[in-house]
Amino acid sequence: MTYLTGFHAIEERIKSGKLCGPLLVAKAGPRAKEIITLAVNKKIRLERTGTFDLDGLAPDNRGIALQVEDAGSGADISLEDFISGLEEDRGALVLILDEITDPHNYGAILRCCDQFAVDLVISRNRRSAKQASVVSQTSAGAVSWVAQSETPNLVRAMEDLKKAGFWIYGADMEGEPVYSKDLSGRTALVLGGEGAGISRLLRERCDSMVGIPSSGRIDSLNVSVAAGILLYEVRRQRAQ
Questions:
Q1: Model confidence, pTM
Q2: Strands 23-25 and 64-68: what pairing?
């Protein structure tokens, strides 16, 4: 069983309407009381518990913790269902994550995806309960809203997206400036792992590599920061 402890993570999970509960309460400050009121209004069961017991279940709690089956899943959907559900001539934005192993980075990326209206996030690995809790807290609850699809084969997923009319761009510091590309249609961005970057097989299937022009002295941006900048550029173009 997994327990959410971050206030934002708990609040957004309850608001999302996904199955959750009970809400365990040991002590309640002003912020926790707001969440308790929300839980009561949403008919989430409350359970009073001792501080010692709650610390044993969820060590980083702040007086409350929400029990959930899976803290790491957003609106789960298969890629096939996502593609079949797209209206004809409708643009869409997909983010493909290639071995993003740090749950803090993964959560921060999901927060960016929520802010910039990413339609789907595709990844390969299912996360452990401990990682899922970190993802939920780091994403400030965005994990409860962002549609996610997990697949054992990212190469095949890219091929399916191409058949559906998507142009796929890999993120690379040596790539062409991202603003030089037309990102207004069906677009998929590929982000590589924190150390190795995008794997060779996925890189070979990208239509082009795009980068973020910079003048810094260190090698590159953190992957979650890069995600935010790239996704902002997509939305900037689509707002014109």
A1: 0.76
A2: antiparallel
